[in-house]
Amino acid sequence: MNEMKILIVGLGKVGQLLCEYLSAEGHDIVGIDPIEQKVDEVVERNDIFGICGNGANCDVLREAGVEDADVLLAVTSSDELNILSGLIAKRLGVRYTIARVRNPDYYTQLRFLREELGFNMILNPEAEAANEIVRSILFPSAMKVNTFARGRVEIAEVKVTKNNRLAGIQLSDLYQISRSNILICAIKRGEQVYIPNGQFILEQGDHAYLTGSHKELVSFCAYTHLSKKQKKKVMIIGGSKIAYFLAKQLLDQKYSVKIIEQNETRCIELAQRLPQASIIHANGSDESVLEDERVDEMDVVVTLTGIDEENMIVSLLCKNMNAKKAIAKVNNLRFTDMVDHMDIDGVISPKRIAANQILAYVRAKSNKDEDSAVRTLYKLVNEHVEALEFMATDNFRGKKTSLAVLPVKKDILVAAILRGRQVIVPKGNDQILSGDRVIVVTQRKTIRDLNDILED
Length: 456
Fold this sequence. Notes:
Largest sheet: 6 strands, parallel
Shape: globular
């Protein structure tokens, strides 16, 4: 891996997370923010250099060394500042520019921003979070669903309970039970995380991560009694940008959508943008409001206020009032650990989605052979596990070697192989060929190239 010089403009939650991730991977990081306290806090926690100033100011960018920087990440809370910072940095000589752009009006102009203004990536965490919530709603039995290879492979998180057939099953027996071509690639049991082998036995309370095509995962859930009725009534508490993107997708798929928002001006704006949705001007954390709006008839409640604790508490309240499924927006990693012990069916973190996408891009660009670098990256099991997608090239040292004898490092699992339109859940006699897309699940945080999965 080549060490890269990376400028991070904006040290809010996303910027702080990027400083943590990228400095841990050995890159040379310069953080820029106009608030001195933020700069001091990030510099104290991470091995980076900090500058207090405006990230769209030429002198500040020159002080940060923009002329010889590899990447500029503009992730302030202002779309306009992010765009301006990226444009100036590009003109001053940075190689790659990534900007966070959240406004729905700008979101329709992504192609123009990339092709005409030269941005390498435009990131909208709210839209990506909405996409992830929709996948979870479309797959009712899953707590979370991540996709690879443009949706052809999915990793779905499910919980082993007394109501399904998974408890007490040895993984090598799964196909005999379900007749479905899936693989369990990771297990969280209490505080322990496992990359399991065929002898692993599932227990009630385990969180299991299933890999396969959507069709095979649906079939598996049907056989193991994980399936639930398709959800059609959705209540969204909090009229944020995520709420807009989520409601728009659900309405396009003929869902019934109700949004509860306290701010009257925002309610009017949402009503104009989403005429098919029911917009309620009220406090969504008020039990009497939830009762009046028939939360007990809702298939899914999604809590999207700006406060993690409120989202968690309101989700629990909705489940207690007989909502069938509750999903909460939670950015603080400490709280996502707590959710495992609560009656909440899923969590979503826009900040972490954004950071993971940027991390995958940086890993790809820092690789000498970009063709075989990371294409997609997700952090699973509260960030203890990474799921990565690679393209196998002629440079892969293990091509045409049976997986049974391939010298794969400990705590690494080849979870899926995509060959053309075929999805292969790998067995010992399968091989990785040049041109395959390969999904790898690992507890190691140093995998940047497909060759990194092999013993030296």
